[in-house]
Design brief:
The chain has about 375 residues and is an alpha/beta fold. Helices cover about 45% and strands about 10% of the residues. The structure holds adenosine-5'-diphosphate (ADP) and magnesium ion. The site of adenosine-5'-diphosphate has 15 residues, from helix 2 and helix 10. Adenosine-5'-diphosphate binds next to helix 2 and helix 10.
Length: about 375
């Protein structure tokens, strides 16, 4: 029933929607958790809109934005003259939300004293305004709380009351980060692009790039990027060139990493089988800039995995003589290619003596490194 407003295509987001539907049918308190921008607010809204309280008010309070005393009077209200500046009496949001829903956003930021006051209200339903001598109103309010904090962790450090956590978390809905539900990316892009006037479209290449991006700011970031890209596009079709650099960067870095691994794998294979030697082949490739120091480092890492962290063990593995040790060492140091050996000390042993097996000759240039010149040189 929420499909018109909350876009959900991934299995995990469909689960979230299903739980929200069940929550809307009840009057139980709900705790929404998840990173910033995943959609906690929108889920809270739809729970209210589909509940029996839909005709009543929906009031949101951000617990992080107010000092403790302001938050107290915001929630509970105050009597005239109860503190400097309290010129007239004021109703609190808990009173105003009577018959409806109060959305307590960023509830993890509440002070311990405020947590105690909130707990007292949740247990009794009774409200006491700041400066009032006795409890006056009773309020019928459904509370939905949200946080991007790990509340269980805050309980263990004494920053959040365990009894309040149990009160708030009758129904717990965890909204996963966008990078863990990539099936939602295309429908979300389509959703935000269609909302534009005139509606916009994204090319397949642009969508593929967006599917690979990490989205640290989740749906909020996706919405912003879609809107920016639409503004920058003169036509009705957004292509990769209209997407900001951050979206491209992840892809470029990933491709570079993959390429580097491939080059190191190929070189390693050629060295370990005896088709290449380090000085006759790898060194010239480096000098002619067919491979970079990143490739050499990756190769050394690959070798150290086999020799369990022994640089000396690399000599026979890479087709060098024992007396080459100093020269090899100097070369790596001069070009900043040295790799820490400690992490390889406990790695799986792969005996070096079994290595130098002669296999058929390899072509003179390594497969990937020869033709696939990379832009980065340093
Ligand atoms: N599943 C979704 N479908 C449609 N819009 C979404 C969805 N999730 C988030 N949004 C939109 O993304 C933005 C950020 O969501 P919000 O609920 O404010 O995140 P949070 O409260 O978790 O920080 C809002 O504009 C919201 O409407
Ligand atoms: Mg929010």
């Amino acid at each position: 029933m929420f499909s018109r407003r909350v876009v959900a295509a991934s299995a995990s987001m469909l689960d979230v929607v299903r739980m929200a539907e069940r929550a809307a049918a009840s009057d139980a308190k709900v705790l929404l958790t998840g990173e910033s921008g995943v959609g906690k607010d929108i889920i809270a809204h739809v729970i209210h809109a589909h509940s029996e309280r839909a005709g009543g008010p929906f009031i949101a309070v951000n617990c992080a934005g107010l000092t403790e005393s302001l938050l107290e009077s915001e929630l509970f209200g105050h009597e005239k003259g109860s503190f400097t500046g309290a010129y007239r009496e004021r109703r609190g949001t808990l009173e105003m939300a009577h018959g409806g829903t109060l959305f307590l956003d960023e509830v993890g930021e509440m002070s311990l004293r405020m947590q105690a006051l909130l707990l007292r209200f949740l247990e009794s339903g009774e409200l006491q305004r700041v400066g009032a001598s006795e409890r006056c109103e009773r309020a019928d309010v459904r509370v939905i709380a949200a946080t991007n904090r790990n509340l269980a962790e805050r309980v263990s450090t004494g920053e959040f009351r365990e009894d309040l956590l149990y009160r708030l978390r009758v129904i717990h809905i965890q909204v996963p980060p966008l990078r863990d539900r990539r099936d939602d990316i295309r429908p979300l892009v389509a959703h935000f692009a269609a909302a534009r006037k005139p509606p916009m479209e994204f090319t397949e290449a642009a969508l593929e790039l967006m599917e690979k991006y990490r989205w640290p700011g989740n749906v909020r970031e996706l919405q912003n990027i879609v809107e920016q890209a639409c503004w920058q596009t003169p036509s009705s079709t957004v292509d990769v060139g209209h997407l900001p650099a951050c979206v491209h960067l992840t892809d470029t870095l990933r491709q570079q990493r993959e390429r580097r691994r491939q080059v190191a794998d190929d070189l390693y294979e050629a060295l370990a089988t005896g088709a290449y030697t380090f000085w006759e082949h790898v060194h010239p490739f480096f000098l002619s800039r067919d491979i970079t120091r990143h490739d050499i480092r990756e190769l050394v890492r690959r070798g150290l995995r086999t020799t369990r962290g022994s640089y000396r063990g690399l000599l026979p593995l890479f087709g060098m003589q024992p007396q080459d040790y100093q020269r090899f060492h100097n070369f790596l140091a001069a070009h900043d290619c040295k790799v820490g050996f400690r992490e390889f000390r406990t790695a799986n042993p792969e005996s070096t003596s079994e290595r130098r097996v002669k296999l058929p000759e390899m072509p003179v240039r390594p497969r990937a490194a020869a033709h696939d010149a990379e832009g980065t040189r340093n």
